[in-house]
Design brief:
Helices cover 49% and strands 20% of the residues. With 698 residues, it is of the alpha+beta class. Among the domains are: 184 residues, Up-down Bundle (Multidrug efflux transporter AcrB transmembrane fold), CATH 1.20.1640.10; 91 residues, Multidrug efflux transporter AcrB pore domain (Alpha-Beta Plaits, 2-Layer Sandwich), CATH 3.30.70.1430; 72 residues, 2-Layer Sandwich (Multidrug efflux transporter AcrB TolC docking domain, DN and DC subdomains), CATH 3.30.2090; 126 residues, 2-Layer Sandwich (Alpha-Beta Plaits). Strands 5, 6, 13, 14, 15, 16, 17, 18, 19 and 20 form a 10-stranded mixed sheet that branches. The protein has a 4-stranded antiparallel sheet with strand order 2-3-1-4. α3 crosses α4 and α16 packs antiparallel against α18.
Length: 698
């Protein structure tokens, strides 16, 4: 079969070149549409069921909300585990499915069960809803909304009604999560003395509020050939409307309005989270959450364009937005690093090819396999949904890719030189094609076998499941796509183009590198054959020693990435109040902001409006965004900066018990403080490793 492919390729060289050109077009198109991220998303297939119960304590939430939800989810197909967290005012149940389960199938199954679950939850205890279709790396863009003279409630209202609806229309955005500020509500403060004086019960007030907030329709009336719609308007639109609600009537028919027995004011909804920045107090932030499987680079770009389009209308309201986290910064750094590594590797391979083949055309011909095989890999990655990231693209080895092409071209050069030397003249075009066919027949089976052996090494990685599968399978698949493309090119494109481009007369000379190596290698080989048992024994000893050394080497699950930020975590006693947590993080921000290397400090305490991360008010995530490295002192390193942070926090926050580096990556949270605090005012601050990715909110 291989010989038939070779013969067909040489007879139909134009078609092979056209097919290669079409592959280039397809590869470039796939490359532009390929999802790009810094690292693979290892989030499993999971659906969160969130229930907000502002008036319930953890025990009531567990008993009346979490337990019915868990029981209702039992028995779903493909479920791996169900876990839950019950906190004050919140129930979070996470249903984890098998890795190959479609996320929308999973959500459909849960949506069907939620209808029955709601009937088992007492009225007024909350309505369970599914969380957004996002992952642990879904928070791709975060911004602050600012306005001089605007209260946190006003800023939050603008975010909810002006900004978030526009951003939700951006393709790939599944939700805009509000964090910080105060959610606007109308509060009715009852005056008990007036209730007693007018002989009105509290139930009457509640019933009046419930019944007097609706519109009604009354069909229509016809008059003079025209139709007039009848409407009863009763929706509340202001505080005055609430005060004008009739609660009761006196004996003489005089109405008693709500304002006679209560005060109506604007008040904030009970909250369990806040955001502060740079020691200047609370702020209001928006978190753009990406839909699972979307292209983070494209989504962030579109979200920023949408915000820029909103700028004129926001300026009229006296506010503006200020981004402080952008995933594309890390993506660009990572991709530029991968691109530079691939470029350096490709150039190195090309240089070696020229030095070894000693023929410019042959070297260029083999070098063409590198970009073509990469484009073939892009097509496979796009077709099978593999994103381009540090693990998938960084694993490609150009030395393995060009192996088959090198063998075919080198043998063709050898036979062409031999034939032209025998004839004493350049070979004809027909003779060159026949020689290339003969050379390819001689070595292509061996080259194919070599590529298959390399591919077999990566096949076990495809069997990995879970987190390790999500991390390393894209790497193996990318390498296999590139190897498959290189093998096809070695069987078709290389012979076809070699029969057109290789010189008809070649003076083959041994490379000086090969000649130098030969002078050293031949005596060493003869010596090794004479003392073969000694060589075998030394090899066994070296193998055993390498195994001992390998067992003591350190290991990392993923490469350490530098996003230009450092993450800290403050942990306090569970009984601490939100106000006290905000006060402590504000003082911490003031200390860190004194460092010239620090650009801004953002602290997130508790949970956001959509509590995908059900964190209590006793925990704060502090993100220290650093200035560009070229603005630092030349002798300053990140490790030294972290030590200075630690010393400054110990010196300026005396009630703080400890400041230690966490052994975990920034994408995970410590389950317990490094040193347990002994009083309510004390807290533990943990300095994490440099911020790798957006902190998962799952």
């Amino acid at each position: 079969m291989i010989e038939r492919i070779l013969e067909w390729s040489l007879k139909n060289r134009v078609m092979v070149i056209i097919a290669s050109a079409l592959m280039i077009v397809g590869g470039l198109s796939a490359m532009l549409r390929l999802p790009i991220d810094a690292v693979p998303d290892v989030t499993n297939v999971q659906v969160q069921i969130l229930t907000s119960s502002p008036a319930l304590g953890p025990e009531e939430v567990e008993k009346f909300v979490t337990t019915p939800v868990e029981q209702g989810m039992s028995g779903l197909p493909n479920v791996v585990e169900i876990r839950s967290s019950s906190k004050f005012g919140l129930s979070a149940v996470t249903v984890v499915f098998e890795d190959d389960t479609d996320i929308y199938f999973a959500r459909q199954q849960i949506g069907e069960r939620l209808a029955a679950v709601r009937e088992n939850i007492p009225p007024g205890y909350g309505e369970p809803e599914m969380g957004p279709v996002s992952t642990g790396l879904g928070e791709i863009f975060q911004f602050e909304i600012r306005g001089d003279g605007k209260s946190p409630m006003e800023l939050r209202t603008i975010l909810e009604w002006e900004i978030a609806p526009r951003l939700r229309t951006v393709p790939g955005v599944v939700e805009v999560n509000a964090f910080g500020g105060e959610l606007k509500t109308y509060e009715v403060q009852i005056r008990p003395a007036d209730l007693a004086r007018l002989d009105i019960s509290l139930d009457q007030v509640v019933t009046a509020l419930e019944r007097n907030n609706a519109n009604a329709g009354g069909a229509y009336l016809e008059q003079n050939g025209e139709q007039y719609l009848i409407r009863g308007e009763g929706l509340i639109t202001s505080r005055d409307d609430i005060g004008d609600i009739v609660v009761s009537t006196d004996d003489d028919g005089t109405p008693v309005y709500l304002r006679h027995v209560a005060d109506v004011n604007l008040a904030a909804m009970v909250r369990q989270g806040a955001v502060t920045r740079d020691g200047r107090g609370e702020i209001v932030t928006g978190i753009v959450m990406m839909r699972m499987g979307a292209n983070s680079r494209e989504v962030v770009t579109a979200a920023k364009e949408a915000l820029e389009g909103l700028a004129p209308s926001l300026a009229k309201l006296g506010v503006h937005t200020e981004p402080f986290y952008d995933r594309t910064v890390l993506v660009k750094k990572t991709i530029s690093t991968v691109a530079m590594s691939l470029l350096e590797g490709g150039v190195l391979v090309i240089v070696v090819l020229f030095l070894m083949l000693r023929n410019l055309r042959a070297g260029l011909l083999v070098s063409m396999v590198i970009p073509l095989s990469m484009l073939a890999a892009f097509i496979g990655m796009w077709r099978f949904g593999v994103s381009g990231n540090l693990m998938s693209l960084g694993a490609i080895d150009f030395g393995l890719i060009v192996d088959g092409a090198v063998i075919v071209v080198e043998n063709s050069v050898r036979l062409l030189a031999q034939r032209s030397h025998e004839l004493g003249r350049p070979v004809t075009n027909e003779e060159r094609s026949a020689i290339v066919l003969q050379a390819s027949r001689e070595v292509l089976r061996s080259a194919t076998f070599g590529v298959i052996i390399i591919a077999i090494v990566y096949l076990p990685i495809l069997s990995l499941v879970g987190i390790e599968g999500k991390m390393f399978r894209p790497m193996a698949m990318t390498v296999l796509f590139a190897l498959a493309g290189a093998l096809v090119l070695a069987m078709t494109f290389i012979p076809a183009v070699a029969s057109l481009l290789l010189p008809r007369k070649i003076s083959e000379k041994e490379s000086f590198i090969v000649a130098g190596v030969r002078r050293v290698y031949e005596p060493a080989l003869r010596g090794a054959l004479r003392a073969r048992w000694l060589v075998a024994a030394i090899s066994v000893v070296v193998l055993a020693a390498s195994g001992v050394v390998a067992s003591r080497l350190g290991s990392e699950f993923v490469p350490q990435l530098d996003e230009g930020a450092i993450a800290l975590q403050a942990i306090r006693l569970p009984s601490v109040s939100l106000e006290e947590s905000v006060r402590q993080t504000t003082e911490l921000e003031k200390v860190l902001k004194q460092f010239p290397e620090v650009d801004t400090v953002i602290s997130k305490t508790g949970r956001a409006e959509i509590a995908t991360d059900p964190m209590g008010v006793e925990i704060s995530d502090i993100f220290v965004m650093l200035r560009p490295r070229d603005s630092w002192p030349k002798e300053q390193t990140r490790e030294q900066l972290v030590e200075k942070f630690d010393e400054a926090l110990k010196r300026n926050l005396p009630r703080r018990t400890s400041a230690t580096r966490s052994p975990s990556n920034c994408g995970s949270r410590s389950s317990s403080p490094a040193s347990a605090p002994t009083s309510r005012s004390r807290s533990t601050v943990t300095i994490w490793r440099p911020l790798n990715v957006s902190p998962p909110r799952w």
